[in-house]
Amino acid sequence: MKKAMMIVIGLIVATGVLQLFRPEKVPSTPAANLAGVPPEVNRILRTSCFDCHSSEVNLRWYDQLSPASFLVNKHVLEGRKAFNFSGWDSLPTPAQNNMLYYALNQALANEMPLPSYTMVHGSASLSAEDKALLKQYIFSRTPRKTTDTTQLHVADKQYEAFVNGTLQATGKVKPAPNEIAYIPDYRNWKMMSTTDRFDNGTVRMIYANDIAVKAIEEHHTKEWPDGAVFAKAAWKEQVNADGSVTAGAFWQVEFMIKDAGKYAQTAGWGWARWRGDDLKPYGANAAFTQECVSCHQPMKGNDYVFTKPLNLFRALQQKR
Ligand code: HEC
Ligand code: HEC
To answer: Domain Haem-binding, which positions (predicted)?
Structure first.
């Protein structure tokens, strides 16, 4: 009994002493609601995300106890750096939509809010209704409307240039800022799947090179072999007057090149993107890959790959 008492007292004293060591206070200024966003969506984001992704942090008394405070501070500071709603007002609508899409992606993948945080802050957890509401709202911001004539014109001009052969005349495509060279051959690869991104109105084709196709056929898709390459090409979604949706102007193509050793710093993949029909390399410097890796992070258990290969019928057809 006495011994137990001593331990309890010892713990209380130790906790007390720990309080002398505190992390630097995180600056906090009130964050306004996201302009133009309905109150119930703002409520969800504020309750579940703002603590780490806005200028305002609402720490509870127990967050301020050491040693927990060190962890909480780290999350707040890193969270803000990765993603911050506070710049909302100055963003153009497409960038706002993009931000919401990114947020939704993380929420639906159960990556956010950080599970270590919701364990202690139960009220920050997203319920199934919260997620459904976020999704519905984010979808509703980008309803499908008939493509305007300016955009149709861009697609038509590209097509004309293709038909009369001037599209290739743009010269050599520059490498990406991380020195990865453009791979024109992707157009001859096998299609792995296709997606439609509602928020920014693009349709995408995902292609796999021979090594990736072989891996698919052999069911090695949990960890892709070195040499596997994916290309994702996107076109502006063209909503025609008759309601049909087709691929319009070329938008961009991006690659993931597997080499566990060479690209160990970027999750084992080389990342690169070229944008526009002049195939301009994307990214101000080599650090652009952080953006790619962060967003692909929820798929870590799937070797960072989102796309589930559509059945590749070759193997089946051969067996007939
Ligand atoms: C306890 C702090 C915390 C909370 C609460 C939180 N996040 Fe995060 N978030 C982080 C940290 C830390 C990072 C950067 C490191 C990482 O990705 O784990 C991050 C990164 C992100 C990113 C960038 C993607 C990335 O991996 O870099 C997005 C988007 C994001 N969070 C969205 C959300 C959304 C949406 C919510 C609310 C539903 C939310 N977060 C709640 C701490 C938090
Ligand atoms: C906002 C989140 C996000 C960012 C940022 C992002 N990706 Fe992706 N990426 C996705 C999603 C989601 C898919 C799944 C297919 C789809 O939805 O079109 C995907 C798919 C891909 C694929 C096809 C293979 C796969 O994983 O399914 C490639 C290649 C790819 N991305 C390359 C890149 C490159 C290169 C960058 C950085 C320049 C990048 N991505 C940045 C979300 C993102």
So the answer is: 8-141
